[in-house]
Amino acid sequence: MTIPSEYYLILSAILFFIGIFGFFTRRNLISLLISTELMFNAVDINFAVFNAYSHTDYLEGYIFTLFGIGIAAAETAVAIAIIINVYRNMHTIHIKKLRELKH
Amino acid sequence: MNYLQFLSMTPEISLLGVFVMIFLFDLVATGRYRRIFHGIVCLLLIAHTYICITSGEEQTLFGGMYYNNPMISFVKALLTFGTLLVILQAHRWLRGSYTYYKQGEFYVLMLSTLIGMYFMMSARHFLLLFIGIELASLPLACLVAFDKYRHNSAEAGIKYILSSMFSSAIMLFGISYLYGITGTLYFDDMPTILTGTPIHIFSLVMFFVGLGFKISLVPFHLWTADSYQGAPTVVTAYLSVISKGAAVFTLFVVLTKVFSNMVPQWQTLLYILTVASITIANLFAIKQHNIKRFMAFSSISQAGYIMLAVIAGNAKGMTAMVFYILVYIVANLAVFGVIESIEQQTRHGVRRETINGFYSTNPRLALLMTLALFSLAGIPPFAGFFSKFFVFMSAFDAGFWVLVFIALINTVISLYYYLLIVKAMFITPNEHPVQKIKCDLYTRLSLVICFAGIVLLGICSIVYINIDKLAF
Q1: Total domain count, chain B
Q2: Of 2.60.40.420, 2.40.160.20, 1.10.760.10, 1.10.287.3510, which CATH number belongs to A5-97?
Q3: Residue in A with minimal Cα distance to B167
Q4: DSSP readout, B107-143?
Q5: Which phi and psi angles does B56 have, rounded to 5°?
Q6: What are the residues of chain B with a beta carbon less than 8 Å away from any beta carbon of chain A?
Q7: Could you tell me the pTM of the whole model?
Q8: pLDDT means per 10 residues in chain B (472 residues)?
């Protein structure tokens, strides 16, 4: 018995919106990063599911997933490097304190 | 698979060659060779621009993933030219004690974003498009955070990269649904299936967010002001013209190629965003006292004007858009060149009060800045008037009279805040105006090119006619 694809899509949609919710409500830079990672993972699930259930002729969806994972990792690396920079300069990574600009 | 295909991607291969040469030079050069580094980079970029312009035959590679034609080559050359101007202006900043030892990194990062933009514009497949967009925005985040010992730069960098990740995740979600609906990622196969049902509109909107962020249209503009203000001035200049120009062109291509059966839907979307961008950015710009922040809001409203050309969605719109990007590059880079010079002189951020009485000490720079601001506002003899005129014409012909009317009203509002700067420079008295600035040779060269562009581009109709011949 196979699981219908809708279940996966609902899972990925929930994951995606948890990510969006977290992005808007969290107050720590690392948490924001984790939220965006959740969103990227939701997208990866989507691609794999569409490829496995609907469009089985080519592997486009799987390949896209691989690239998505790789690029998300690269983005995280850059973001963490910048977060370390922020921490060295301001000794905090709480976004309420990041208010130097605007003045 | 025919591996010789790679060699047919002339602009990318040539830029990659420049990239590798600069990288190796940075590794091996020492002592007095480092002093000519900047000159070598500029010469390489000039040669590369020439290759770009001449390599304009139409070709489709990798089974339709990559497409190049004279127009795309021209825009690539245009963006390279803009990058060249930015690098020319960066000379004095790169000589500074904090940046001197990472001069090579600056060029390398900048060129890798440029390669990403090339791929964005040439992509005819969503995977290539996605890689291009990420390649264009990741090194840019490093560039924004380049001055890492200043608080602001890191703060601007983190704001940029987090909003970039957020928006590209949303865009990917849209692309995944497009893939689920159509079963393909090639642009050419999609339009027949996308007809405008709710799920199609949903994926269109989700996709739009990613590019809307890069263009900084209004609901996605919140990162703009902070990142522009905190980034090093040359990087701000780069962000505001080059990255924006590439994203606008890409948006045009995607909307007309992929969503060609959903024209009313994306026109409605663009309509709302254009009105919002122009109006809201104009109102916010009036309040700004920091000049870089002010230019950020000005660039949001300029993005709104470019959208008038995209909304037309035909060959005429494309001509108007590319011409607008060209004029916008010279005018905006002139303003940023002057700001950069003042910043290098005073060592502080430039506020509107800083440049009070600027004319009395630096008449030529003040005059150039005035002309550039007039061009941005669209006052007749300068290039900005003509570019705005063509953009309005293309939207008008497509039937958007009300939109053009709203844009016209906003042009008048924008004139007010551009003139505030001019007034500060010429009329407002100041006890201690900025000292006489002595620009270095490179900056002077770039400012002269910008000046020539502002004055001549509009009058020499041959430029517009030639772009018009290339449009597709």
Answers
A1: 1
A2: 1.10.287.3510
A3: A36
A4: HHHHHHHHHHHHHHHHB-BHHHHHHHHHHHHHHHHHH
A5: -95, 35
A6: 126-127, 130-131, 134, 138, 141-142, 145, 148-152, 154-159, 161-162, 164-166, 168-170, 172-173, 175-177, 179-180, 183-185, 225-226, 229-230, 293
A7: 0.93
A8: 78 91 89 85 92 83 87 92 92 84 90 93 92 93 86 87 92 92 89 88 91 88 89 92 92 91 90 91 88 91 91 89 93 92 83 84 90 90 90 90 92 90 87 82 92 89 84 79
